[in-house]
Amino acid sequence: QVFGPKAQQRAIFDHAVAPIVNDVLEGYNCTVFAFGQTGTGKTYTMEGEIRQKVGELSATAGVIPRAVRHIFDVLEARKADYSMKVTFLELYNEDITDLLAIEDQSRFPEDRQKRAISLMEDGKGGAVIRGLEEIVVYSPSEIYSLLELGSARRRTADTALNKQSSRSHAVFSVYIHVKETTAGNQELMKCGRLNLVDLAGSENIARSGAREGRAREAGEMNKSLLTLGRVITALVEHSVHVPYRDSKLTRLLRESLGGKAKTCIIATVSPSIHCLEETVVTLDYAYRAKSIRNKPEANQKVCKSVMLKDLYQEMEKIKQDVKAAREKNGIYIPQERFIVEEAEKKIMRDKIESLELKLESKRKEVDKFKGLYLAEQEHRLDLESQNKELKVNIESCKKEFLDLEEAHSRVNISLKEKDFVISNLLRAEHSIVERAKDMRGTLENASGDISILLNKLERQSKNEAENKGLLFDFQSQLDRSLELLCNTVVGSVCEQRQFLESMNEQNKIYFSAKSESANHLERRIAKAKDLYASGVECLNELANTLHERSIVHSEQMSLNIFSHATAAANFLAVMVSEAEQVLNDVLKSNSELKELLAISAEQQEIGLKRSLESAQFMSKTSTDFFEDIRVHVSRLINLMEQSQIESSSQLFKFEKDFKELSIREEQAALDKIAGILAGLTTKKSTMVSECVAQLNGKCREEQKHLKMQMSNLQHISDSGIKEAAYYAAKVGSQFNEDKSSNAKIKDQMEDILQQRYPSQLPTLNLV
Ligand SMILES: Nc1ncnc2c1ncn2[C@@H]1O[C@H](COP(=O)(O)OP(=O)(O)OP(=O)(O)O)[C@@H](O)[C@H]1O
Question: Helix, strand, or coil here: 121?
Fold first, then answer.
């Protein structure tokens, strides 16, 4: 099962550990151990937060508190009759210490040393720890307290990877005895053991930041872990020899690795990329350990009476020991015999001591040889890994060499191509130099043209300055003419006004005279009208009277008519003369008017003539002025057109020349760059060829060197293997010799003691 970073403690327990805990209750020995790099959470997983919140475990409680709680819950639910005891030990620098031992009451803290406990073989292939405190517990909280006590006593120190790193391996064991009653009312005891192991971090010493003592300690820890690794490898590979005995850790876990226990391994890894190496190693261990096949076997149920008997016997022995110690009522013998025996005992003790010393020295030698063998093995492994690395290096060097050769051939081809390009470029350069010479001449011509153009431009600017002066003069002249014209127009307007005023006066006079004569004529005509009306009336009266009197006075009447006719003729003559007079007056006034009109027309004509003259003068002046302007403008336009044409032609030429020159210069620059590049390419190609030659040489040298080193290594490892085999054989034979001599001594001593104290046979425990 894989648990991600978000996995909860509960999930880990439920999936991985709970089934194992149930098996413990069925009488199996089970082990749960956590291993992995420092700081990856082994202690967190195994212990976590131990203390429970009111009645309940905290969410961060680890495997141990949960397992304990689970065991109690199940047993309580079954209403089982059970007993439980726990032990808690620490394995530090290959020394075992009891974490639950009663405190050393030394006065000074520095004197309070942790008492090391010996690990012994139980004769059935297992290991027994002598003197380990087994504490009987009745509730989970008691276990939690013991756990806290033991955890607090564990040796921790800070490393670069973990602030509080456990420096030791810790084994917490729970022993459970459950009483079962058979059908025949026989009481059986079912025993199960649960080992909960928190290994020390499998750290890289350099990376963990461990220094001096701690580095040695890390080495020791690595030794245990290294042996664990070797045991796993041997089990996976089904080797004949499994090196359980090489470390105390593997001796302790023997039953759990390939034995009859059920085992759960928790591998903790860090998600950090910096820990990749260790993560890979841990996962490799875990992967290999997964394929170990244990042969789980439940412990035999013991009959309660047998168990009780054993216990009673043990108790009896202890009681006797206690009593003898208390009452000092051991064996009483005569003094001489006591002295002789004491002397013999002393001799024997000395002998034993010397033998023990010998044995110790032999053991040390064996340890040394073992160390040497292990170191040799490690060295061999290192060399093998170095060899592998070197082989890989050689392979990569070969590959690099092939790549370089390929690159070299590619570079040669590109160099040839570049040579071809360079020769083409040189030819082109030659022709370009020729063209450059031509262009130089053209450029010189162009510079002459430019100087001419500049002269012309100068002239043009002079002309423009002159034109400006002329324009200024013309402007002042125009101002003067306009002023004159204005004065003339103002004078003629005054004259016209005066003339019109006099004409108005004369017209007024003429019209008043005319109206007077018309009035007079009107009055006369009215008078003549009246006269004519009265004459007509008289004539009518006369006609009437004549008609009346015609008959009577026809003659008189003719006389009267005659006299009246003459009067009328006279009157008409007067009237004609008067009318002639009036007509004459009218004619006269008409002639006067005509004269006046003629005078005014004459005056008007004069005025008009004058204004015509002045207008003609003005128009002439303006025409002249505009003619001048037109002439100037046309001249200027011509000049400008000319100069524009010239300058545009010059500029066109200049542009053309400039373009050509710049193209030539660009070409020249490109040629230079090509030259530089060609130089660089030749340099590079020489460098590459030199480098390739050097690399070739180096590769050959390295190959030679590697071959030499490999043969040396081969030689060293062969000799190491031989030596190790020789040492192992020697150690084996010495060990056997020692064993046999020890057995002999033991036999001798037993014989002696048998002879001396046939009833009280002491037991000698010789390891
Ligand atoms: N799953 C997790 N959730 C929260 N905190 C964690 C977890 N795993 C580890 N830690 C924290 O990381 C730190 C290191 O963890 P821990 O001491 O358990 O590592 P370790 O593997 O036992 O280290 P060492 O081998 O050095 O003893 C602790 O502070 C622990 O509380």
Answer: strand
Q: Is 40 in the pocket of ligand 1 (CB under 6 A)?
A: yes
**How far is Cα 605 from Cα 602, in angstroms, rounded to an integer?**
5
Answer whether 517's CB lies under 8 Å from 585's CB.
yes
Q: Find the CATH number of the domain harbouring 281.
A: 3.40.850.10
Contact 171, 64 (CB under 8 A): no
Q: Encode pLDDT of 612-656 as tens digits.
A: 776 677 667 767 766 776 777 677 677 767 877 876 787 788 778
pLDDT digit string, tens, across residues 70-114: 999 999 998 888 999 999 998 887 888 888 887 655 545 554 455
Last residue of a domain, one of 627, 658, 689: 658
Tokens of 465: 């300055």
Q: How confident is the model at residue 215 (pLDDT cuts 50, 70, 90)?
A: very low
Contact (Cβ atoms closer than 8 angstroms) between residue 251 and residue 122: no
Q: Is 38 annotated as a binding residue?
A: yes
Q: What residues contact 495, with CB distance under 8 A and at least 6 apart?
A: 607, 610
For atom 10 of ligand 1, the residue with the nearest CA is 41
**Which of 326, 342, 374 delimits the end of a domain?**
326
Ligand 1 center–CA 575 separation, angstroms: 165
Phi, psi of 748 (to 5 degrees): -55, -50
Q: For residue 273, give both structure tokens.
A: 């990329």
Residue 623 to residue 627: CA distance in whole angstroms: 6
Nearest CA to ligand 1 atom 8: 41
Distance 21 CA to ligand 1 centre (A): 23
The structure tokens listed for 630 are 């037109």
Count structural domains, the chain: 2
Instruction: Please say if the pLDDT value at position 406 is more than 50.
Output: yes
How many percent of the chain have pLDDT more than 90? 13
Which residues share a beta bridge with 191?
177
Same domain, 314 and 443: no
Whether 378 is in a domain gets the answer: no
Give the pLDDT score at 113.
53
Do residues 492 and 610 touch, judged by C-beta distance below 8 A?
yes
Tokens linked to 671? 């040629």
**Is 39 part of any known ligand binding site?**
yes
Q: Burial level of 479, CB count in 10 A (0-12/13-18/19+)?
A: exposed
pLDDT at 593: 67
How far is the C-alpha of 513 from the C-alpha of 589, rounded, in Å?
8
The predicted-structure confidence for 14-61, as pLDDT tens digits, reads as follows 999 999 999 999 999 999 989 898 889 999 999 988 876 666 788 899
Ligand 1 midpoint to CA 288 (Å): 24
pLDDT of residue 216: 47
Strands 187-198 and 29-36: parallel
Q: Tokens 């057109």 belong to which residue?
A: 641
182 in a structural domain = yes
pLDDT, mean of residues 253-272:
90
Does residue 591 lie in a domain region?
A: yes
Confirm whether 470 is domain-assigned: yes
pLDDT at 205 over 60: no
Rounded Cα distance between 293 and 263, Å, is 10
- Pick from 209, 115, 223, 110: which is nearest to 163 by CA? 209
Q: Could you tell me the residue range of the domain that residue 291 belongs to?
A: 9-104+113-326
- How many angstroms separate the CA atoms of 499 and 599, rounded? 11
Selected residue with higher pLDDT from 31 and 548: 31
